[in-house]
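Cross-check.
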Amino acid sequence: MILAAIDIGSNAARLLICEAARYADGNVDYTKLTLLRIPLRLGMDVFSNGKIGEDKATQLIDTIKVYQLMMKIYKVEAFKICATSAMRDATNRLEILKKVKEETSLDIQILSGDEEASVVFETHIAEHLVRSKSYLYIDVGGGSTELTLFSKNKIVFKESFNIGTIRLLQNQVTEECWDDMKFFLKAAIKGYEPIIAIGSGGNINKILSLSKIKDGRALPFPLLRDYHKRLNALSIAERMHQFSLRSDRADVIVPALQIYISVMRWAAVGEINVPRIGLADGLIRMLYKEKEVR
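Predicted model, tokenized:
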């Protein structure tokens, strides 16, 4: 079965197309056919002006049209289109959804913060974890950070905070926001220590690539802190040159590291695992389960 997921985030819009197949042993394989990413940066409009401007709306519609054509080429049988923090906060979100529907005939589902965190569970992370240990999943996006605690293969809590890379770049995160996440996390993890961290998002994956650490091995906390210090000392142009970063990665990677480092410090974890999964992966798995049940 060929499935697709479009994740419209605050920083970028991603299209993931996979082939899903269940085998005799009951396992389902998800083979990635293509992954496209366009840095729309809807959050730049929303977190500054409260709504999505005309230019960004046009770019969004054009992006969806391109993704729609890609799904046609790959003969996608079913798909999901979901939007997160920026679309949630946009005062003109209903108008934007209507425009997209008129021009593409496609519907976009806006996920609540709680629903966004729930999709994490659909990546089946918990199935591969040690039952006796506790795991904190940290998903950092452009508009929000989702924290999910797994223990004994069950979700203990899932919480979304309006602390994201685009919000930080635009000085939209107050000390009160930081304190809310800090105090919630410290209280919520009591009794579940020690905790193992799992990271998701394009920025933590980029740090994994830069570090040359092999997949399957965790990134140490001091290494993240060192990258934050080194990158923060450089201009965006210098980051692009010295670390071979795209411009739309070079600016958000520093605030992303700030979030990961803060959460890891509050949770007293010394390293973070990066399994290269994200919201789109969870959407694909949710979609497969829905189609299989029918």
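Residues 54-73 form the longest helix (20 residues). The two ends are 14 Å apart (CA to CA). Passed to J.P. for a second look.
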